[in-house]
């Protein structure tokens, strides 16, 4: 009989902890040390949970969000050429390339937006080379690590990733060439940074799959 | 006209063909296939998430306040987790054996849902088809093609290589793909943002007043159809390709200092007071703005 | 800028308004994500995705629910979708009730006197145990016990009934208790073995 009473008490313990108490439950709790220990444990868990506390996201999270909002034109800029190269449609996903890589790409894109002011063209040209080189290097390093995820269990998926990575690599090469030949070409620069972003997204997807496979 | 891939033909035919093809392909499979059915009672605006690594996902709206799942698994090495927490249903096809071949991974889902269901679908390879659902939707595939018909809401579609077709869809639409083609037919959306790097794009639908329609690719064809009564403000630009425009546009006032440099093809202007905004951008491809037949 | 004003201005694309909304809610959203996935890089990505979805959809917010509820509903959906994509390591009840290796005796009952949790639940053990909860249980535990949401708010966020929220929370706590007891047993066993090895080495 005692075991049944414990089972019934266990079923009502959730409500009991929310303050919904009955005389029968109170009586059982007074009489049963095992259920008192169970209650003590659950109370301890509740208390420990509340002590886990909040955490502040690092500044790079907002930086990445901001860059994405500008890229998607969700932030209205009323200057006359605002609809021009800041046109890009981006993945609905976040910058899933990992925070550092995402901010690198986002930062380079922001630089591209800022240097629509032709007075800064020289600064832009110098800045572009440095940023482009840095991005290419990071993407290359990232890619080396993720090649293993191209051998997942679904050959259709593997083939699609391989093919589309190659497509994006080709576009990156063509865009880099365009930007080198016509540094003033804002659209070429936008396409280039979008291509980097696209590659980062594909690599990040592969990275997630690689983790899941382990 | 765009030379369309087979997936852009009849949707029923396409999904059936894939299913038949699948049956043929797996006829010789030695693992026992599994059939799974489950129903979930739900209130208004339920949320359904579907995660399927390989196979078809077909979703249709019905009038019952419940969700019905019919799943066919190619082998007994796959299982379906179907969990409900209140008004949310999570469906997940997963391998239960480490030793599983790609053929054995296939799971085909058919769902019947209330029309205001919010859908989140992830399907790596196979095909996704959604009919008559007007809740928000997020579809994410690698190689699977996506077909939406009479859908509405905030629709987000992302594929790597899969092609996308939307027929008579309304609301806000965002589509991105690396190499998939994008075809938007008889559209009634007020906000369309679509981008593919290597695929072709076709838009044939209404340009709603104050609507925004942005299509972008790197190479390939962008084609937009219009009627003489449509009202839109157009900008079409291709850096290396050409723009073929049949619309009778009033050019914009010349803005000091603005030159469409570095664009081999460029057209801008408005038609019938320019109430909608249409922006078409390509790097290497051709942009056609053609009168509807 | 008040939240209501920020929402109105954000619906018109005001950059400062977006930032204000982020300032008001990022800590709670990030904490939710962090407690759910226990990985700072993933939590950052998920936080970013939640806010981007929010900002893309903000023009459709009509005030049918509290803005924070709407945002947290988005965030929970984003996290749960992410967890669904990953293969979840789930501990089974059977694993937690195997016979004790040393004594070969019958299964221990939970709550045995020498393994009470009181005072033994530290942040690390608790977070590890939370990581092993199924996603639905995890979400409700984090929302209620960690973040302090009431059941009516959780019902709004998760799209479930208040009764459902209460019963899921109780199941989550019971599961955590099993997992924490298993951890304590393993730690106690390791300590005993360490003492035995030390004694054998000295002998």
Characterize the structure shown.
The complex is a heterotrimer of chains A (214), B (293) and C (203). Chain A contains 8 helices and no strands. Chain A is mainly alpha-helical. Chain A has 2 domains: 2-50, no CATH class; 59-213, no CATH class. In chain A, helix 4 packs across helix 5, helix 5 packs antiparallel against helix 8 and helix 6 runs parallel beside helix 8 (186-213). Chain B has a 7-stranded parallel beta barrel with strand order 7-8-10-12-13-11-9. Chain C folds into 2 domains: 3-85, RNA polymerase sigma factor, region 2, helix turn helix motif (Rna Polymerase Sigma Factor, Chain: A), CATH 1.10.1740.10; 93-202, Winged helix-like DNA-binding domain superfamily/Winged helix DNA-binding domain (Arc Repressor Mutant, subunit A, Orthogonal Bundle), CATH 1.10.10. In chain C, 70% of the residues lie in helices and 0% in strands. Chain C starts with a helix and ends with a helix. Mean pLDDT of chain C is 80; it is low at 88-114. At the A-C interface, helix 1, helix 3, helix 4 and helix 8 of A face helix 2, helix 3, helix 6, helix 7 and helix 9 of C.
In short:
Chain A is mainly alpha-helical and 214 residues long. In chain A, 71% of the residues lie in helices and 0% in strands. In chain A, helix 6 (121-146) packs parallel to helix 8.
Question: How are the secondary structure elements laid out?
Answer:
The complex is a heterotrimer of chains A (214), B (293) and C (203).
Chain A: H1 2-17, H2 23-31, H3 33-50, H4 59-71, H5 99-114, H6 121-146, H7 155-181, H8 186-213
Chain B: H1 11-25, E1 34-41, E2 47-62, E3 66-73, E4 78-85, E5 88-95, E6 107-114, E7 118-131, E8 137-141, E9 145-149, E10 152-159, E11 164-167, E12 170-177, E13 182-196, E14 201-205, E15 212-217, E16 221-226, E17 232-238, E18 243-245, E19 265-271, E20 276-282, E21 286-291
Parallel strand pairs in B: 2-5, 2-6, 2-7, 7-8, 7-9, 8-10, 9-11, 10-12, 11-13, 12-13, 13-14, 13-15, 14-16, 15-20, 16-21, 17-20, 18-21
Antiparallel strand pairs in B: 1-3, 3-6, 4-5, 17-19
Chain C: H1 3-10, H2 15-37, H3 40-57, H4 67-85, H5 93-96, H6 123-131, H7 135-146, H8 151-158, H9 162-202
Helix pairs in contact in C: 1-2, 2-3, 2-4, 3-4, 4-8, 6-9, 7-9, 8-9
């Amino acid at each position: 009989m005692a075991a049944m009473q414990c089972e019934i008490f266990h079923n009502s313990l959730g409500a009991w902890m929310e303050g919904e108490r009955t005389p029968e439950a109170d009586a059982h709790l007074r009489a049963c040390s095992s259920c008192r220990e169970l209650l003590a444990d659950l109370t301890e868990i509740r208390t420990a949970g509340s002590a886990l506390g909040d955490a502040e996201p690092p500044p790079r999270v907002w930086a990445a969000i901001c860059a994405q909002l500008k890229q998607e034109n969700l932030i209205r800029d009323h200057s006359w050429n605002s609809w021009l190269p800041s046109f890009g449609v981006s993945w609905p996903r976040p910058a899933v390339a990992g925070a550092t890589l995402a901010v690198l790409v986002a930062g380079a894109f922001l630089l591209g937006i800022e240097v629509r002011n032709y007075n800064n063209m020289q600064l832009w040209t110098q800045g572009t080379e440095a940023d482009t080189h840095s991005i290419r290097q990071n993407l290359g390093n990232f890619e080396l690590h993720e090649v293993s995820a191209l051998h997942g269990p679904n050959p259709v998926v593997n083939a699609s990733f391989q093919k589309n990575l190659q497509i994006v690599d080709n576009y990156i090469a063509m865009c880099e060439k365009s930007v080198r030949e016509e540094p003033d070409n804002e659209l070429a620069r936008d396409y280039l940074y979008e291509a980097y972003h696209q590659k980062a997204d594909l690599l990040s997807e592969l990275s997630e799959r690689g983790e899941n496979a382990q | 006209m765009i030379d369309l891939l087979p997936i852009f033909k009849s949707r029923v035919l396409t999904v059936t063909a894939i299913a038949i093809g699948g049956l043929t392909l797996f006829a010789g499979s030695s693992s026992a296939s599994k059939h799974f059915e489950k129903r979930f009672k739900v209130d208004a605006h339920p949320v359904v998430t579907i995660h399927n690594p390989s196979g078809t996902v077909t979703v249709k709206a019905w009038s019952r306040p419940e969700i019905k799942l019919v799943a066919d698994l190619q082998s007994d090495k796959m299982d379906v987790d179907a969990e409900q927490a209140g008004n949310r249903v999570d469906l997940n096809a997963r391998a239960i054996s480490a030793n599983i071949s790609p053929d054995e991974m296939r799971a085909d889902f058919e769902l019947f849902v209330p029309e205001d269901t919010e859908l989140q679908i992830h399907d790596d390879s196979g095909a996704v088809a959604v009919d008559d659902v007007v809740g928000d939707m997020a579809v994410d595939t690698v190689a699977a093609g996506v077909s939406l018909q009479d859908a509405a809401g905030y629709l987000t579609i992302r594929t790597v290589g899969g092609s996308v077709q939307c027929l008579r869809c309304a609301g806000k639409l965002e589509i991105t793909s690396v190499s998939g083609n994008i075809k938007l037919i008889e559209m009634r959306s007020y906000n369309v943002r679509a981008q593919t790097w290597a695929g072709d794009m076709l838009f044939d639908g209404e340009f709603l007043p104050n609507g925004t329609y942005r299509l972008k690719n790197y190479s390939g064809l962008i084609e937009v159809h219009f009627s003489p009564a449509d009202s839109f403000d157009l900008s079409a630009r291709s850096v290396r390709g050409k723009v073929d425009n049949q619309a009778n546009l009033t050019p914009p006032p010349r803005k000091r200092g603005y030159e469409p440099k570095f664009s081999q093809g460029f057209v801008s202007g408005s038609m019938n007071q320019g109430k909608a905004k249409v922006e078409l951008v390509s790097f290497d491809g051709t942009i056609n703005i053609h009168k509807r037949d | 800028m008040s939240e209501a004003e920020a929402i109105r201005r954000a619906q018109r694309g005001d950059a400062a308004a977006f930032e204000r909304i982020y300032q008001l809610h990022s800590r709670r959203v990030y904490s939710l994500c962090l407690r759910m996935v226990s990985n700072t890089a993933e939590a950052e990505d998920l936080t970013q995705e939640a806010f981007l979805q929010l900002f893309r959809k903000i023009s459709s917010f009509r005030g049918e629910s509290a803005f924070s509820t709407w945002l947290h509903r988005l965030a929970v959906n984003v996290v749960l979708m992410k967890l669904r994509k990953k293969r979840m390591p789930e501990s089974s009840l059977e694993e937690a009730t195997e016979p004790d290796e040393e004594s070969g005796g019958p299964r221990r009952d939970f709550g045995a006197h020498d393994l009470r949790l009181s005072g033994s639940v530290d942040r690390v053990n608790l977070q590890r145990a939370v990581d092993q909860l199924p996603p639905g249980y995890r979400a409700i535990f984090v929302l209620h016990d960690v973040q302090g949401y009431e059941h009516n708010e959780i019902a709004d966020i998760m799209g479930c009934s208040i009764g459902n929220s209460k019963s899921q929370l109780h199941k989550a706590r019971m599961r955590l208790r099993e997992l924490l007891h298993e951890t304590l047993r393993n730690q106690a066993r390791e300590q005993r073995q360490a003492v035995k090895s030390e004694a054998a080495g000295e002998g």
